[in-house]
Amino acid sequence: MFIGQYNHTLDEKGRISVPTKFRSGLTEGCVVTRGLDRSLFLYPLSAWERLAEKLAALPLGKADTRAFARLMLAGAMSVEIDGSGRIMIPQYLREYAGLTKRTVVTGLHDRIEIWDEETWNTYRMRTEADGNDIAERLGEQGV
């Protein structure tokens, strides 16, 4: 399980360190893809395969399902953790997420999210300000 928030630096070659606590969950391999809210999602291979199966099973006749499957599947790239604990993030994904030198890596149970630090801080502050309203809506759903 991935939890926590870590600040990291994207190097000039587009590599980012995976937090040490997360590396053991990625030994089988991993996939990075476009996420939501201008983040990137990094999945262990087994979690990615489960998600990809669900996306591939969505009905082709619906524009929203085609668009979401394309967002996730066409943007995906297998990545390997190098001997220094880093992954290479492809240029097109760095551009999608607006990654600059300073990044934030967060653990969200079965996936890791990679954010540009400024984008993360803006998102986090907005979400924290709306936290009570969000909790109330989720409470209505039994969370």
Tell me what you see in this structure.
This protein is α+β, with helices and mostly antiparallel strands and 143 residues long. The chain has a single domain, classed as Transcriptional regulator MraZ domain (Chemotaxis protein chec, 3-Layer(aba) Sandwich), CATH 3.40.1550. 41% of the residues lie in helices and 29% in strands. Strands 1-7-8-4-3-5 form a six-stranded antiparallel β-sheet, with helices on both faces. The protein has a two-stranded antiparallel sheet with strand order 2-6. The model has no long low-confidence stretch (mean pLDDT 93).
Topology:
Blueprint: E1 2-9, E2 15-17, H1 20-23, E3 30-34, E4 40-44, H2 45-56, H3 63-74, E5 77-79, E6 86-88, H4 91-97, E7 102-109, E8 111-116, H5 117-129, H6 131-140
Give a quick summary of the entry.
The protein is 41% helix and 29% strand. With 143 residues, the protein is an alpha+beta fold.
Specify the CATH class.
Answer: Alpha Beta
Largest sheet: 6 strands, antiparallel
Domain count, please report it: 1
- What structural class results from the helix and strand content? alpha+beta
Global outline: globular
For the structure shown, list the relevant keywords.
41% helix; alpha+beta; 143 residues; 29% strand; Chemotaxis protein chec
